[in-house]
Amino acid sequence: MSAAPDSTVPPAHQSVRAESGFAYGVIGADLHVLGNGMPLYLLGKWSPAAPAPTQWLRELPSRMLNARNAVVGFSGRHDERRSLHAWLAEDARLSMRWLHGVGGQGKTRLADQLALEAGAGGWQTVVATHGPGAVVRSASHDLRSNGHTGLLIIVDYADRWPLSHLNWLFSNSLLRQPGLPVRVLLLARTDDAWLPVAEAAAEQGAATSRQRLDPLPATVAARTEMFSAARDGFAQHYGLADPPTVVPAVSLDSPGMGLTLALHVAALVAVDAHVSGRRAPADMAGLTVYLLDREHAHWSRMADDGTHHVGATGGALRTPPEVMNHTVFVASLTGPQTHDRGMAVLRGSGIHDASDRADQILADHALCYPAAQPGDGTVLEPLYPDRLAEDFLALTLPGHSVTDYPAQAWAASTSRLLTVRDEEGSAPAHLARALTFLASAATPDRWPHLTGYVEEILRTDPLLALDAGGAALTALAAAELGTEVLEAIEERLPPGSHTDLDTGIAALVHGLAVRRLPRTRDPLARARELDRLGGRLGFAGRHAEALERTQEALETWRSLVAADPRTYETGLAGALTDLGIRLARVGRREEAVAPAQEAVRICRHVAETAASEADDSAEARTDADDGLATALNELGIRLSEVGRREEAVTAATEAVAIRRRLASTNPEAYEEGLAAALNNLGSFLSRAGHRNETLEIGQEVLAIQRRLAAEDRAAHEPQLATALSNLGIHLWEAHRMDEAHVLTREAVAIRRRLADVNPAAYESHLADALANLGAHLAGAGFLEDAVPPTAEAVAIQRRLARANPAAYEPDLAWTLSNLGAHLYEVQRLPDALAAGREAVEVLRRLVGVNPAAHEQDLASGLGNLGVYLIRAGRPEEAAEASGESVAILGRLAAGNPALHEPELLRTWWTIADEHKNQRPHAALEAAEQAVRLCRRLVAAEPDTYATDLRIVLTAQADVLRILGRAEEADVIVRELDDELL
Questions:
Q1: Residue 877 in contact with residue 885, Cβ under 8 Å?
Q2: Packing angle between helix 759-779 and helix 163-170, nearest 10 degrees?
Q3: Beta carbons of 589 and 557 less than 8 angstroms apart
Q4: In the prediction, which pLDDT does 730 show?
Q5: Which of 286, 339, 395, 560 is most buried, most CB within 10 Å of its CB?
Q6: Nearest CA to 734 among 683, 704, 693?
């Protein structure tokens, strides 16, 4: 009896048709494409490897090493499998793991085994393949869960994906199916790219972990178990009746046998040699040569044997072995190509007669190395596994010491031809693979002679290293290329941060610094080297290392200043500013203030000296002033982060004055800096309670940013979004709600667009804008509309705070408080209560670390929680929360009335209004406190607080009536009616 279909999953039909190209679709997931229509990545269901025909496998023994041909059953790696299954069973809804190990360690085989075992437990597995450079065939994939227990997504070569493309994958709705646990397994050779990937994953709400796939245990027993399993699998295809008679020719406890692939190669060669009567080599290089010799023999047999026919052409295989050798070399560098691209590649590779016979050569090559997926129509399928392809490249290029394998004179020129730009200056699409493969094989423990060929490519065109991407840069850094080549690349690095290159740039700059620092005797050169290294490590998310290098740089700058203050104090100030930023980035915000203050003192001294000395040029004075403004801006940020709001306002006010003066003489150079300084000042004024001064500042900033964005949208749109968001806040605080939410909607639209492109950089800013939009919509009376953007903001900030509580919990607490208020207004009391409790929990943690920065927010959160509790019929808990709120605010208001009395007034009024039915006496006391406070505020600012006084007087009259004191209530009402206010 067949099982009934899952009624919760509706049937779906998707028609995919391609005309002059390809058509690719998915059901139950998002499809992200580049501007040229190429998918950023391809998603497809995983399926177990299908056994290949024995005769076909034996034609080229290396085919048996390809995991997709399912020759060798999985064995060993018991601890690693247990760890992965424990990861699948974790409570987290979304979790990502970075599984890394050198090429040949068995990552793909382990991932396939996990998929097989997870499938037995009801999990579905999906494979994500990077799109750019891949060949896409028309297809449709139904990826809906269909009642599965969980979803496992395997991402191979994750370290070769640009971070922005991984961000798109992490944002896919496939990863966010209600009630379905999702695990993303990212396979990589190293963990160099892990930190920024982990940050990006955490921003999507994922738990993160990494797992190193270590070399196989050095015990002979463990390695013999894996060797025997592989030998037995190969022996089946050779018809070998007694496999145990085949023993390894190489010692299994040698260091080279720590790779899964090495044991499989040893087993394959041992079986093949036993059957054919050959002698198996006793070293790893010899084993590799043995397999490659079998490739050559196969090409020769096929060229000589007229019974082999090419299906596409109907003729005999006509490509000579030497041309096939050349073609396999090309395929190893380029990877699979469409037929048209393959034709172009061959014609530009230096292969003899390729211009006239390219189609025949491709057809013959495809007979030896067919496409991975039948029907793909691709050509130039490379050798597998990748490590064998890398070894083949290395052995074909002259310079190695393996005498049994002849190198080819044409290999060097072909590698150059395949890595040059076209006539329009564009790098070849396969450049990333070509450079990564060559560099990965060029490490000192493998084929160091390849460094010369890589250097020759890059010496001619260093920018190719950047065009090849972050993974190639990382591989180049590990290959120990010549310093002059790496420095030529370094000279062309983009300034500032570049999401997709930062990891590779950090590896390259770190590698250069390791070489240069030990021999750098000049303290100035050393300080600058450390400054650069700290900055690049910071961009790559290696914040702890960045802090160490910046601290080291600071020590060097101090020694320079001790000898010559006038020359080096500006450099010291810059290092101090960087130190403040690094400390704040790792959550040590209190410590970050002191270096920022010292930087300001130094910059102020430099500016005063430049202004007083006639021999200083106008340019020197301008630079000194600009440096002081920058230091003041950073100090303002550091002070604001720790709740020292008035001091932050003072620093920002001075920075604005300086930047305004500079911009008046040179707007093009300094107007952007003025806008940034004004933006900070407006934010600090608002937080310090000086809200009347913020509107004009916000309007000026927005005018500048609109003008700059009109000239260069890409460069200035993030700052425009910030200006819109900040002015929206200032308008909201001025009770101009309609204007506020219009500007904030525009900010949300911009930030959502930016976050779609680069979630790691902009998603936190999107959350801020969404939270502001929710507040402004609620203030304008659109209560139902306020909930969705605020809830979305909470979801984002909750994910961010899991990864970095110190950085993101303050924003999460504020947004949770707002969400609770909005839910309360639309009668969703249980949800409001849950949000309010969570907000207070977060705020208590924050106050424990920094009371000055967070006590007012805790008081506000407690006040809101008191309202939800009283409405939930829990007056005792409500009294406790509300009482703690007014106690905190009363103490704060005593120290700074202008900042805290408005919030105290709102809290007293709220208690009076919300508690009047269940706690009328307490409500009356609160109303009286509110009236007394509001009368004092009206005396100072009648236009601001007159309406508030009417509100609190009305609340007082309401409570009096509840208590049966109608005459007193009538007196208040008459006061209001007679407009005695």
A1: no
A2: 40
A3: no
A4: 80
A5: 395
A6: 693
